Amino acid sequence: MPRRLPQNKRLISTLIPVLMMRGAHYKRAACQRLTLARESRCLSLICGIYPMPNPDLSPTAYLATLADKQLLLVKGPDASKFLQGQVTCDVKELTAPVTRIGAQCNPKGRILLSFRALQMDSETIALRIPASMLESAQKTLGKYIVFSKAKLHQGTDAFALFGLFGESAAAVASTFFTQLPTEQDGWVEHRGSYLIQLAADRFECWIALAERDHFLDAVTKQTQSMDAQAWQLLDIASGIADVYPESYELFTPQELNYQLINGINFRKGCYTGQEIVARLHYRGKLKRHMYRFEYTADKIPAPGTAVVNSLSGQQAGAVVMAARNQSGKIELLASLLDEQLDQASVADATEKLSPRNLPYAIPTADDAPIQ
Q1: Where are the beta strands (DSSP E) in 17-158?
Q2: What residues contact residue 217 under an 8 Å CB cut-off, 6+ apart?
Q3: What kind of fold does domain 63-238 have according to CATH?
Q4: d(Cα 306, Cα 344) in Å, to the nearest integer?
Q5: Are 293 and 356 a contacting pair, CB within 8 Å?
Q6: Does the structure show a pLDDT above 70 at 303?
Q7: Closest CA to 175 of 156, 199, 203
Q8: pLDDT tier at 203 (50, 70, 90 boundaries)?
Q9: pLDDT band at 112 (very low <50, low <70, confident <90, very high)
Q10: pLDDT of 205-214, one tens digit each?
């Protein structure tokens, strides 16, 4: 049976329909495809990320400037072929109007770069990455792209990135975009700009610089501002993690649960690090997963900060990403040994980590691997 984390008692009645879907007949494939649409509102309430609402806006919507994220464009006739041999997700799936989470690994299966990929046209694939990883990404991908008919281009001179969130986010998005995506991870294009649905009430907006002012004119009056930390809390609540300079080559894709969010395709062809990733999947029993926690501390831990057993002090894992929520507590994703889940604490912290819910089930060692 999948591992269950403690429920917030006040939300039990809200989550019952979701939990019923995760009963004894819960399939691993369903775990891969699990949508956040019915849960995103619950996640928002759990992590306390809603700012104080403006009574003049009903229902509410929030706009975040995603200055900590950037686009890296892979352009050329071999763009798709090149990436297919470098990353964990199946680039061929991008020909449909969907995006994919994925990673570039080193030969030992450790993540060099995490991203969300979108195919803009037959010769252009955009990778949305942490801004702090742009220089590193150009080096690690550039080392191999010289053998392909493709080139890397920074997207900073072409796109501005925003996040839309809230009950009326879809309605607000439709004031600029002429249509909306029809599924989670789907996207639509309008005048060179892209709208990506992360959940029923959450969207990424990749806006062409020439349309930036038009977009802001359309949405600003209908939204309240939301800072980047609040947006990061949504990523944490969604269980979708990125790798940063501090955690470069620290995690395997499975240690960030990428196999549970369509971030790894085990049936595609070879790519750098594929042998290790596949061996962990087919021959080994995964003993580490990424979990969501909450605790109280003065300082937000950086990615890569050690997570230890609160009793023995022995290292059990590492922080993946963290942010402070509205109640003043720190929410984080940490990758650690499954057996240490109930005794985990951030190094030098006085308080043990309290597990919180993720929108997908964490398999146990006895579960059959995802195909």
Answers
A1: 62-65, 69-75, 100-105, 111-121, 124-130, 151-154
A2: none
A3: Gyrase A; domain 2 (3.30.1360)
A4: 10
A5: yes
A6: yes
A7: 203
A8: very high
A9: very high
A10: 999 999 999 9
Residue 134 pairs with which residues in a beta bridge?
none
- Residue 145 CA to residue 82 CA, distance in Å, equals 7
Phi, psi (deg, nearest 5) at residue 235: -60, -45
- β-bridge pairing 306-309 and 315-324: antiparallel
Residues 6 or more apart whose CB falls under 8 angstroms from that of 328 comprise 296
pLDDT band at 279 (very low <50, low <70, confident <90, very high): confident
What is the domain partition of the chain in residue ranges?
63-238, 287-363
Q: What is the pLDDT of residue 59?
A: 54
The owner of tokens 């990404």 is 137
Dihedral of alpha carbons 124, 130, 135, 140, sign: negative
Given CATH 2.40.30.160, say whether it is the number of domain 287-363. Answer: yes
Tell me the Ramachandran region of residue 280: left when phi exceeds 0, alpha when psi lies from -120 to 50, beta otherwise. alpha
CA dist 263 → 105, 144, 272, 349 (Å)? 12, 21, 15, 32
Q: Are 149 and 77 in contact (CB under 8 A)?
A: yes
Tokens 């925003």 found at: 162
Q: Are 225 and 62 in contact (CB under 8 A)?
A: yes
Beta strands in the chain (DSSP E): 62-65, 69-75, 100-105, 111-121, 124-130, 151-154, 159-165, 187-190, 193-199, 202-208, 224-225, 288-295, 306-309, 315-324, 330-337, 344-346, 354-356
pTM for the model: 0.85
| C-alpha separations of 167 from 35, 201, 232, 360 in Å | 17, 6, 18, 22
Q: Which two tokens stand for residue 73?
A: 């464009």
3-state secondary structure of 79: helix
Please give the residue that has the higher pLDDT: either 369 or 88.
88
Contact between 307 and 345 under an 8 Å Cβ cutoff? The reply is yes
Q: For the stretch 139-150, what's the b/e string if a residue is b when 16 or more beta carbons lie within 10 angstroms of its beta carbon?
A: ebbeeebeebeb
